[in-house]
Amino acid sequence: xxxxxxxxxxxxxxxxxxxxxxxxxxxxxxxxxxxxxxxxxxxxxxxxxxxxxxxxxxxxxxxxxxxxxxxxxxxxxxxxxxxxxxxxxxxxxxxxxxxxxxxxxxxxxxxxxxxxxxxxxxxxxxxxxxxxxxxxxxxxxxxxxxxxxxxxxxxxxxxxxxxxxxxxxxxxxxxxxxxxxxxxxxxxxxxx
Length: 192
Known about the structure:
single chain, 192 residues, mainly alpha, 0% strand, disordered C terminus
């Protein structure tokens, strides 16, 4: 149990050092994971309908997708979030961002492979049930859900603390930096 608390504390410290609000990052990461499957693995009928009904230029603009990803409101209606993500995100971009985040998660600690194993079950084309992922990772129910929470939070930190800021800087969109994720401006991570 001590090791599990150490992992959680390490992730929370990372969140704090990046001045990210962990509850918001976690909610946004869950939403992104939920939508990932439907965006990346969408069947061809949905894709062809999207291509017919929407402006192709809008679909091809990674800057719009990044700005939306950087600052979407996780308390907004989940269907509305999905619709916007589906219209803005190219599957390939989302796959690359998620793969990069998983590399970050894997390299984070000795639990990185376990975290990736848990997340992979939610990101594969055929979603794997939580019970099957629990069995595959040889974890008890409470341990599995604790590690799943850590994995999702760390995934979110990778996306909104590392990947999104990198791409925003690359596209010279620094003014669009993640705002709603930040903790109060007076926060000093070294004050603990």
